[in-house]
Amino acid sequence: RAGHVALVGRPNVGKSTLLNRLLGQKLAITSHKPQTTRHSILGINTLDDGQIVYIDTPGIHQRGDKAMNRYLNRTATSVLAGVDLVVMLVDSSNWTDEDEMVLQRVHRSKLPLMLVVNKIDTLKQREDLLPLLASLSEKTGIETVIPISARNGDNCDHLEDTILQAL
Ligand code: GDP
Ligand code: MG
Q1: Is the distance from the beta carbon of residue 93 to the nearest atom of ligand 1 less than 6 Å?
Q2: Which protein residue has the closest C-alpha to ligand 1 atom 14?
Q3: Domains of the chain: which residue ranges?
Q4: Which residues are GTP-binding (predicted)?
Q5: Quick check: CB of 16 below 6 Å from ligand 1?
Q6: Is residue 151 lining ligand 1, measured as CB closer than 6 Å?
Q7: 17 CB less than 6 Å from ligand 1?
């Protein structure tokens, strides 16, 4: 199995932390070099049974009027061209307008979509997790919702497996 996975999400949800976690454990090639004008490769994870290329999505987490205009004018389809799967990260502690913007954009791409709920280590009560996942799934319309802590690695192996299976 192999494929290109776009990691999207507003600033501060933990994308870089997750990447370090995924790439650091099974060290492979990492590069921030822009590959094309559309994609920046964040890293390539070579596993026993496949290879996952993680890319960022320029523009998706920019703010401000100009950026917003660019954002709206460029179709998600062109920005996410060549991507096999979109993984959207959110912070378990809150859902913001920026998350909503990212969601609208990824929905327009019509690509397979997975939701990763990060920072579950910050939840006050373990029992809050399942209702949170259910409500996020309902809010976003995304069926596959995976809770993780990128910081301490909780469930990150499961995430990687799920990504591989989806490719
Ligand atoms: P990015 O902007 O999406 O790339 O987010 P970063 O990876 O830079 O993380 C933003 C902040 O959230 C940093 O202070 C991270 O240490 C913190 N963070 C990331 N993942 C976790 C997590 O799983 N748990 C907690 N508690 N903090 C996290
Ligand atoms: Mg980052």
Answers
A1: no
A2: 12
A3: 2-166
A4: 9-16, 56-60, 118-121
A5: yes
A6: yes
A7: yes
pLDDT tens, position by position, 99-138: 998 898 889 888 999 999 999 999 999 999 999 999 999 9
Residues of the chain with confidence (pLDDT) below 50: 35, 61
CA of 151 to the centre of ligand 2 (A): 13
User: Of 141, 12, 8, which Cα lies nearest the Cα of 85?
Assistant: 8
The pLDDT, as a whole number, for residue 11 is 86
- CA dihedral sign, ordered 119, 120, 121, 124: positive
Q: What is the CATH number of domain 2-166?
A: 3.40.50.300
β pairing state of 85-91 and 2-8:
parallel
> Has 33 been labeled as part of a binding site?
no
Residue 49 pLDDT = 87
Q: How many helices (H) and strands (E) does the chain have?
A: 6, 6
pLDDT of residue 76: 56
DSSP 8-state class, residue 34: B
Q: Is 12 annotated as a binding residue?
A: yes
